[in-house]
Amino acid sequence: MSGAQRGPVVVLGCRVRFERRVWTVAAVGGGGVRLMAEEGGEVVAVLLSLLFADPAFEVLDGPGVPRLLPWGLWEALPAAVRERALAWERHVREVETGRPGREGDGGAARSEYDPASRTLAQREAAKAAELTASGVAASAVTVRRMRARYRDGGLWGLVDGRAVRSRSVLGRADERLVGAVVEVLEENRGRSRGTLGRLRVYTERLLVQRFGEGVVPVPSVSTFNRLLHALGDGTGLVGSRRQHRWRSARPTPPFTPTVVMAPGELVMMDSTLLDVFTVLDNGVEERAELTIALDVATRSICAAVLRPKGTRSVDAAVLLAQMLVPAALRPHWPEASSMEQSVIPYERLVSADERLKGAAARPVITPRTVVVDQDNVFVSASFVAACESLGITMQPTPPANGPAKGHVERAFGSIGTLFSQYVAGYTGSDVTRRGQGPEGEAVWTLRQLDELLQEWIVCGWQVREHDGLRHPMMPRTALSPNEMWAALVAVCGHVPVPLGQDDYIELMPLVRQKINDYGIRIDYRTYDHRVLNPYREQRSTAADGLWEIHYNPHSPGQVWVRLPKADVPRGYEWVTVPWIHHSLVRAPFTDFTWQYVRGTVARRGDRVQHEHDLALALRELLERTGAGLGSPRERIVAARAGAASAAGAGSAVACGGADRSLEEPGVGVRLPWEVGLSRPGDGGVDGVLYESGNPFDDEDEADAQGEDVRDAVLSAGAAVTGSREDEEGEPWQPVGAMKVYDPLKEAMRW
After folding, report:
1. CA angle 365, 370, 374 (to 5 degrees)
2. Residue 686: Cβ within 10 Å count
3. How far apart (Å, rounded) are the C-alpha atoms in residues 70 and 53?
4. How far apart are CA 131 and CA 486, in angstroms?
5. What is the CA 469 to chain-centroid distance, rounded?
6. How far is C-alpha 242 from the geometric centre of its chain's CA atoms?
7. Cα-based distances in Å from 501 to 15, 416, 624, 655, 743
8. Please, are residues 125 and 140 in contact by the beta-carbon 8 Å criterion?
9. Burial of 721 (0-12, 13-18, 19+ CB in 10 A)
10. CB 723: neighbour CB atoms within 10 A?
């Protein structure tokens, strides 16, 4: 007899179940069978493939076929259990065949087990006597039972069932006790943690209340604690939360590794607090928030945005736009960091995209799919609209699943070890590594820290070898992100995507509203200008009749309205409409500052009076904190407003610069960034800073050219505003400036 387990076989004369009826196999051959029904005597011819495909098919009797032993389970058994099963196999074989070995093995059968001279019952009795003499208690019935088990299950049927029996983690605990423990654990979810003894007391009370005194006994303390751990471990219901964080399983990673072969095929975006304190306005020290876009194929940091705590959706949208724009080479950066001096195929790329002339060695990658988490920044309507306008597919990750965007998470760790820990004001990666006073070590402003970070990305990260980047022709050599991009762009090519002024306005958050007789009102702020006169109380051409309005949360001093215009290619134009109280509040503020003021000012009149009161309160807050006064909370709010306005208002859109509808006859519209100037009010010569730092390294040269700079600033401001005046007779000067690139020069190139 074979030692393998045997199963049923379809042969002539066997009974089978087919289509919920019992049949007898009358003939087999030619890939089919003839079946005769037991009831009625009906005869049918059926293909074997159709017979076996029937869900109800079953062989009711017939010979078996060899089946493999589950070797994985067999090897996991204790050695003693396996030896006992093998010994019983030899005994059973000797009883049935006369020889303990397998069929074909040599050797003569012993006389007491010779099938030719002894019956099966005699051989079973002889084997029982032999086992009893050797110290193994066995009877003829035992030998017969082992023979039956071997016939049905082969060698696996001879294994001691106690060794393969599955054991419950709950042991033999009463089901009523288990239910009470589960209910107590759930009731304590979210409450302050206590000892296991407290849970035992709660369980005893619940059992008495539900079943009566002494009906369901509570086991000993050790047994009860084991039951608690069996039910609560891994769920966070037992032990401290710190223990739960260490014991809990990591989130489920993607089922298969993500393989990308082209730049931009998969870009991961995420935000985190940078482990560095920065000095905001009014001397407030606070950690900045970093948002990056990482290309998986090349591991390139395509863009990085540094903001005060509280990144907005507009920052994520600007991050997308920055990926498509070449990074300008700053004057103080080394010449080796230019794209022309790098390993990137500069000559071939610049022939396709002239914007790369004088650019820094940072790849320009057009994303096809962006992987984001489900944070409000990335699932907001403005970010989704930005992705749709740029033709980008969004792929949100499951909640609280870091491995789904593990590349960008690992990049944040590398930024901490390669950049942050060498910067003054480093906080340490966690509280256990934090010094006594890292706030006092902070010396860099948010803008200065952003300058350092951008330079490190170009000069450090992009040229550093990454062990995860391997070229197919050089699998043993690690490549840098720039080298990997150079290798892939030669195969995939580079398609430049130009962005103009209108495209950046499209990236701003959107609201749809009517243009009322008083203008446009958003969050208790009214925007109005005479350019809206023809459209007041009028329906737009959209289906809902509302007008499309975009705003910048980092600079809510103006909004952009899409108005129809027949003599332009697109059939519409963007006009900039200022806040009616812009002359009352000159200092920079953000939507975050406005919300804080709204929470502190009670309404005492109509909407018009309430808005005026809010503007006065905002001005008083900014003036008070600017003088170093106010509560710590007010100073933080104002400091964040100044830093966010300086960083955010200039990085997305030229606020007011595209207001060609307000252009006066004979006055050309020139934007501040055309003369290389950034937003007024940040220092420098007469309150003006240059785009890439002050180009005048020599003080005498700066003094000599100071008057020219002042004239340029004044002419730029006058050119933007022209001779137009607001309702109070005072020229309106837009707030903010473009920092990404020159949109007018960009438009001329395309």
Report:
1. 150
2. 11
3. 25
4. 78
5. 21
6. 24
7. 82, 35, 36, 10, 5
8. yes
9. buried
10. 10
**How confident is the model at residue 86, as a pLDDT?**
92
Max CA separation in the chain (angstroms): 129
* Mode of pairing for the β-strands spanning 267-279 and 285-295: antiparallel
Residue 572: count of CB within 10 angstroms of its CB: 16
As a whole number of Å, the CA-based R_g of the chain is 40
Using DSSP's 3-state secondary structure scheme, residue 224 falls into helix
The rounded distance, in Å, linking the Cα atoms of 43 and 34 is: 7
Give the model confidence (pLDDT) of 513-561 as tens digits. Answer: 999 999 999 988 999 999 999 999 999 988 899 999 988 887 888 899 9
CA 82, 85, 90, 96: dihedral to nearest 10 degrees? -160
User: What is the distance between the alpha carbons of residues 613 and 610, in angstroms, rounded to a whole number?
Assistant: 5
The DSSP output letter for 466 is: E
Secondary-structure breakdown of the chain: helix, strand, coil percentages, each rounded to the nearest 5: 40, 15, 40
- Which secondary structure element, helix H or strand E, spans residue 470, and what is its range? strand 466-471
pLDDT value, residue 256: 67
Q: How confident is the model at residue 411 (pLDDT cuts 50, 70, 90)?
A: very high
Average pLDDT of the chain is 76
Q: What amino acid is encoded at 691 in this protein?
A: E
3-state DSSP call for residue 43?
strand
Supply 72's token pair. 């994985």
Which distant-in-sequence residues (6+ apart) come within 8 Å of 629 by Cβ?
none
C-alpha angle with apex 738: 567 to 717, nearest 5 degrees? 80
Percentage of the chain modeled with pLDDT above 70: 78
Whole-model pTM?
0.58
CA distance 726 to 578: 9
Measured CA to CA, the distance from residue 288 to residue 45 in angstroms comes to 79
> What are the angstrom distances between the C-alpha of 227 and each of 140, 182, 247?
44, 10, 18
Q: Which residues contact 704 (CB under 8 A, 6 or more apart)?
A: none
Sorted by sequence, the CB contacts under 8 Å of residue 190 that are 6+ apart come out as none
